[in-house]
Every structure is written in structure tokens, then in C-alpha cells.
Amino acid sequence: MNKGEVTVKLGDSVRFGNYSWRVLDVQDGKALIISKNVLEKKAYHIEHCDVTWETCTLRQYLNGSFCDRFDTEDKARIAEVKLANNPIPWFGTSGGNDTLDKVFLLSGEEVVRYFGDSGRLENPDKDWRFVDGRVVHKDECDSENIVIGFIDDQYNIERMAVGFGGEHSYWWLRSSVERGCTVIVGEDGRIDPLCVEHFVDDEDGGVRPALWLIL
């Protein structure tokens, strides 16, 4: 898609660089786009530790090597924007400082905003607990264990993404939690705020870059 070539609207599919993208938002002469599919698999961070979007190695990669895949003309159309890195409201943890980015991952709030809001972000299912690396029902454990608040709703299908080989893949969000975890969208489209089966250093995490494209 060349600059000024077409008028885009929400839900459109566009070609930019060597990738296909979905238009999530249009405002002030820019379009927020996300890759239609998982483009590659990569760890959120190089090691298993508590990390925020600001300090993770995936952010460095997306704004460095990945961004450099675009030619000079296309790269000039990628706007640098300030991102609010708010925490998922179910945890009393920090999402880290706001950042300036050209290429980024969506946050938990943004996925709900652009893929469908069932109200579950503020009112999650709290029947599950995180115990010794496992998810168990609240009736089977101490009430003091960490609450797991999945978002499993009618918008799962909208959030599902195809990876390599045509199979569905989980994909990273930038919202960090704690205990070496960040938020993911699962293979089934469910939003998992503690990614109990996938830690930040897992190298099979799906990457769906997003960016604001100057029209």
C-alpha cells in the first residue's frame, strides 16, 4: 500500500512491506495495523525473570532488526508513538513505564478494545487459582493462592491467529504481570493473563507486530 494510495477503514486487509495486515483503527491520518498472522516465533525476553515491555528483548528486536526489514520509504511511514503500558487490573503489579515505539505488541486493553469487549477485562472469571505452576479450581486449593482471571468469551474466534503450517498459535501481548510471565492470547483465542504454560523466555511465542502507519 503506497502512501496516499487508498482510503482505509476498520477491518480492511492491507499489504505493507512484505506482510499482510489488518486495520484496527484510523485516526489523524494514521492507521493502526496488526499482522494478520503470526509472523514468527520468538521469546518475549531472553531469560526467565520479571520483565516489562520497556526492558524486554522482543521490544528491542521489533524496533531494531524487524523494523529494518522495511525499505527506507516504508520505514518513514511508520510513526513513533507513545504507548501507555498499563497493568492488567487483576494484579497489583506494575506494567512498567510508558514507552516510545515504532513497532510494538498490543496490550491486553487494546486487544479487548479492537477485537471485542465482553466486559470481562474488568470482571474476569475468578474461579481458578495458580498453585505450584498449575491451574486448579478454587474449590481444590487455599483461597490465598493467586487468582487467575481468563477472558474466555464470544470474541475468542476474532483473537485466534494462524501460525506456521496453518495451525493456530498463541501470541504475545506486551502487558506484563510477574513471575516471569506476560499476557498472551492462546491458540483458542482466550486471553490468559498469567500464561501459566508459557513463560517469557519460551521461544515458541507467536509474534504479531503492530504499528501506526502514516497514510
UniProtKB/TrEMBL annotation:
Residues 28-213 form the DUF6273 domain. Pfam families: DUF6273. InterPro entries: DUF6273. This is DUF6273 domain-containing protein. It comes from uncultured bacterium contig00107.
